[in-house]
Amino acid sequence: MTAAADLGREAGPRDGDNGAPASAPRSFVLYLARRPGLLIAVTIVAILLVGAILAPVLAPFPGDAGSDTNLLAALLPPGGAHAFGTDIAGRDVWSRVLFGIRISVGVSLVVIAASLLIGVPVGLIAGTVGGKTDDLLMRIVDVFLAFPSLLLALAITATLGPSLEHAAIAIAASWWPWYARQMRGEAAAIRGRAYVEAATLLGIARWRVALRHILPNSIGPIIVQASLDLAGVILTFAALSFLGLGAQDPTPEWGLLVEQGRTLTFTQPWVALFPGAAIMIAAFAFTLLGEGLRERLDPKGQTRR
Amino acid sequence: MSEDTPLLSIRDLAIEIRGRRLVDVADLTVARGEIVGLVGESGAGKSLLLSSIIGLLPADATVRGSITFDGIELRGAPDRLLRKVRGRRIAVVLQAARAALTPTLRAGAWIERALVLHRVAAAERRARVAHALDAVRLDPGLMSRYPHQLSGGEAQRVAVALAVALRAELVLADEATSALDVTVQAEVAELFRDLRAREGTSFLIVSHDLALVAGLADRIDIIADGSIVERGGPSVLSDPHHQVTHDLVAANPTLERVREAAL
Amino acid sequence: MSGAPIGAGTPAAGDATHAAAPVPAASTPDDAVRLVARALVVRYPDSDPAARPALSLDELAIAPGRSVALVGESGSGKTTALRALLGVVRPSGGGVEFGGVALGRLRGDALRAFRRAVQPIQQDTDGALDPRQSIGSAIAEGYRAGGGTRTGSSAVVLRLLGEVGLQASVARRHPHEVSGGQRQRAVIARALAVEPRLLLLDEPTSGLDATVQVRILELIERLRVERGLGLLLVSHNLGVVARLCTETVVLYRGEVVERGLTRGLLEAPRHPYTAALRRSVPEIGVPFRAPLMPSIDSARIDTAAGCRFASRCAYAVATTCGANQALAAVDGDPARLVRCGRAPDLGVLDPLA
User: Fold this and answer.
1) Whole domain around residue C118: which residue ranges?
2) Where does A96-197 show beta strands of DSSP type E?
3) How many structural domains does chain C have?
4) CB B251 to CB A19 under 8 A?
5) Nearest-5° Cα angle at A8, A5 to A9
6) Under the phi-then-psi rule, with left for phi > 0, alpha for psi from -120 to 50, and beta for the rest, what region is B208?
7) Contact between C298 and B261 using a beta-carbon 8 Å cutoff
């Protein structure tokens, strides 16, 4: 049999292989069209992104997101120049909510990114190297995990003093061990795969095998988890601000805005309602996004929620 | 030995998926007590054909033609009817036998449950199971094992034992021995022959292993690109007429030819 | 002592032709890449120390130009032997040497040299390639691991693809987009990219169509000759082995029961297990032969002492077979060894009876 005959015969995948290879849909839009949940999520996230970037342009009262106040316009109901009304200091709620995207969502993203940057390498090293290194690293992780995340965050902000930055540090500190633990599990599972062993047996250095083979194949569920967690972080930030331990006035963090409207719930509900709704919508969108990503990145369902 | 009407009769079967005609078989029959081998390369359509008999084709497949089992038309039959035939009168044994068994049930419980589902009376079940285990020469002690505790060959035999317990008249074997050691393959082949002799079970065996089928089947059908190109007794392999058959035989390793090559 | 010297007796199919094989210019001498297992014993962790080990191998040598087969059923220890030779499984006793140096002692450059010189071809075509990596990229990675430069890699990838019979377009595809046979060829190409001297193949054709199997075996044989490789082939099928290997070692439950030139073993087996294995290989034109013995899984009794095969052996006799059997030469040929106390009586066994 000549090589040419070989090539002719071995043309394609076998019949009876489980269906066609996972071919990408013809276009992204068609893909989304079949998944209404993901479509909604992507739309909302896109809107949030636009809002965050173009806030100075879109907000009719950009100054209200800072320390400008206008007591004459205090507590105006929604309507006219103020689509969402004004708060107790006369600031336009719509503008504040808009700028709040940068804080509530933006900083949350930073926190998640930081948690990943710490947790993933720790988990990767532990899962790849195994042995005593694994034990040591996981013991450290366990110590952090022993504290309920909110309590840990509370303790840290209480110690360092309330501010947006400290809240961010506190949340990142309590969040990264989850990624470390999850990454370690994924990495340990992938480590035993034949292609990882094959790469090692080719003489490729262990760290290179870890980065080129183990990491790409185990990061999928982590990304899904991160997306779901984004919703959680947004809520945690809001909670901390609500308790006075996070962002401080005049920073337009949504949780803080809700707190500022708390006492006015029955008299001037719009002050708390709109930021509250924003929190909910953002959390909802990122949760849906995570679930949507799960189909592509974590088909075997290794994410926690 | 076989009755006049064949047990399984396929006529003018055409299976298309997304506009491509993948199976085009004018005629294929299996008589009672007959072992028929269906051989061909991957992608020739063997597995599709087998799936169509029990009505388990992908949703986007269109089927035309007739598949008659003991006089009953299976093609296009309602699910209700197919369920009576599938598993009970027509048994399927697959390549990954362990995967066919329920991982959370012990082998004995799995067989028992299947018998219950097919409405075999309690009094009769025990007798049938005992008979089946004996027929497939399976150690009854293995009945308390979970599938992951069984070897490939043992799992295969459990699947066949169920077919016997259900008194299946036709066994469809899709690469049933491909994943097994040669010694275990030989045993399973022997088992099939034995069942045919003792119970009169018919077999339709799909395999890419010509030599295995040659030793086992009464009749061999060679399928290429969805159609049967040649058919005959085992001698059809020793003396092939069609080019495809010839190529298949030429490509199969045999020890005799290795010896010849060395001279 | 070591197995049969190459060239002794009639050449069987697949015998190496030494002089003709082109060898890369800067290659190391054959002795430096000789892989030898001596008195190798492997026990599974947590196993009963009093029980027999999973593998006990007196001697096994692989060197360029030699092609050795390890044959046996599941549980024979053949895969364990291969993995011990790769250094992936740590021996409980005895050891493996590469170029005269114990595997456990190899470090740094010497270890890398070992990894390059000895390449495995595993049976799991589905898992042997990173699903996220294109085939071309996987081969290129192998090339760079062997010391190749990034700039040269695309040309090398194309050359290797051609050498294993794959079209250039396969380089862009991912493992799930090609057939099992193509995947196996890709795995071979990747192994070749480091310019190995020895290939250790573990059931390289299992799961593939019969026709594809033959082509893969032909490819391996061609590569062996063209590159002057040494081969270790692990398989449960004597038919596969016969094409490629001059010598065969038959394992049963961790012990060598027969070894010698492949041709001799196939035509004139001396151990009942070898005969039974031979008999189990189906052949076109040869009438069906019922198996002589129950297959290994339905007969799991492990006798404490004596011949391990006795419980399945058609020729077993309580007196002789109750004692532990030693590996002994037969027919005055020091390279032809059989572990059977009854061998002198039984003579040549006819598997086709």
Assistant:
1) 30-267
2) none
3) 1
4) no
5) 90
6) alpha
7) no
Return the domain boundaries, chain B.
Answer: 8-96+175-262
Report d(CA A115, CA A230) in Å as an integer. 11
Domain of residue A193, CATH code:
1.10.3720.10
Q: Which two tokens stand for residue A216?
A: 């790409």
Is residue C125 packed enough to be buried (19+ CB in 10 Å), middle (13-18) or exposed (0-12)? buried
Torsion of CA A193, A199, A205, A206, to 10 degrees: 0
Residues B90-130 have pLDDT tens digits of 998 888 777 788 888 999 999 999 899 888 888 889 899 98
Contact C115 A201 (CB under 8 A): yes
| A157 falls within a domain | yes
Phi, psi of B151 (to 5 degrees): -80, 170
Q: Tokens standing for B241? A: 């007429």
| A132 in reach of chain C (CB within 8 A) | no
Residue B47 contacts A, CB cutoff 8 Å: yes
Determine, yes or no, domain membership for A273. Answer: yes
The answer to whether B172 and B204 have CB atoms below 8 angstroms apart is yes
Closest CA to C314 of C267, C353, C260: C353
Tokens of C346: 């039984």
**What ipTM was assigned to the predicted interfaces of this complex?**
0.81
Nearest CA to B215 out of C183, C35, A83, C281 is that of C281
CATH number for the domain that contains residue C225: 3.40.50.300
**Closest to A280 (Cα-Cα) out of A106, A84, A44:** A44
User: For chain A, how many structural domains are there in total?
Assistant: 1
Q: Does B260 touch chain C (CB under 8 A)?
A: no
What are the pLDDT digits (tens) for C216-249? Answer: 989 999 999 999 999 999 998 887 788 889 999 9
**CB-side exposure of A90: number of CA atoms within 13 Å?**
9
Task: List, as ranges, residues 210-249 from C with C-beta within 8 Å of A.
Answer: 211-212, 215, 218
Tokens of C306: 């004596």
Domain span holding position A269 = 84-297
Helix (H) or strand (E) holding B39: strand B35-39
Q: What is the pLDDT along chain A (305 residues), one digit of tens a residue?
A: 333 333 323 333 333 333 334 445 567 777 777 888 888 999 999 999 999 999 888 888 877 777 777 788 788 888 888 888 888 888 888 988 999 999 889 999 999 999 999 999 999 999 999 899 999 999 999 998 888 877 887 888 888 888 888 889 888 988 899 999 999 999 999 998 889 999 999 989 889 999 999 999 999 899 999 988 998 898 888 888 888 888 888 888 898 889 888 888 888 888 899 999 999 999 999 999 988 888 878 766 656 54
The set of residues, in sequence order, having a beta carbon less than 8 Å from that of A124 and lying 6+ positions away, is A183, A184, A187, A210, A214, A215, A218
Phi, psi (deg, nearest 5) at residue A144: -65, -40
CATH homologous superfamily of B8-96+175-262 equals P-loop containing nucleotide triphosphate hydrolases (3.40.50.300)
